[in-house]
UniProtKB/TrEMBL annotation:
Protein name, as recorded: N-acetyltransferase domain-containing protein
Signal peptide: none
High-level lineage: Bacteria, Bacillati, Actinomycetota, Actinomycetes, Kitasatosporales
Record-linked PANTHER family: AMINOALKYLPHOSPHONATE N-ACETYLTRANSFERASE-RELATED-RELATED
Domain N-acetyltransferase: 4-150
UniProt keyword terms in alphabetical order: Acyltransferase, Transferase
CDD domains with a match to the protein in the record: NAT_SF
Length: 158
């Protein structure tokens, strides 16, 4: 069985996390906004918070990153990115199942946002029991998903 571990990110992981984001999410970012290298580097500089991020290792090799926020009423999966070399191997599913189990034990829902163009991630989240709650952002580019059962009726953007 593949050994998956999490280690705290450090400031030295900044470039790794930027390159990971480019490899894992570049096509989706390009589809929505277009890829502007400097704009993406500026965005990364603003959001990279090593004290909140974790590096995913698989059999001792860096494979991705994880950022989870434990909020009063929910566990929010702020970001999970796996390098394409490690996608499709069940790693993300195993990590998210662990978060689902932890959230249930704490009486919380697991919630996340996913880009509407990222069909592959949405399919994974649905298989794991998450439901679309709403769409938001400019032109509804993001989908909020949660373990909380959806309310009856049509889903509207907010």
């Amino acid at each position: 069985m593949t050994a998956i571990h999490l280690r705290p990110a450090t400031s030295a992981d900044s470039e790794y996390c930027f390159q990971l984001h480019k490899a894992a999410m570049g096509a989706y970012v390009t589809a929505v906004w277009g890829w502007d290298e400097q704009a993406q580097r500026d965005f990364h500089a603003r959001v990279f918070t090593p004290d909140r991020w974790q590096i995913i290792t698989v059999d001792g090799t860096e494979a991705g990153m994880l950022h989870v926020e434990h909020r009063p009423t929910e566990t929010y999966l702020a970001r999970i990115e796996l390098h394409p070399d490690h996608q499709g191997r069940g790693i993300g599913g195993r990590l998210i199942r662990g978060l689902l189990h932890q959230a249930r034990r704490q009486g919380r829902d697991l919630t996340l946002d996913v880009l509407a163009v990222n069909q592959r991630a949405q399919a994974l989240y649905r298989r794991l029991g998450l439901h679309e709650v709403n769409r938001h952002g400019e032109n509804n580019i993001k989908i909020r998903m949660s373990t909380k059962p959806p309310r009856p009726g049509p889903i509207h953007g907010s």
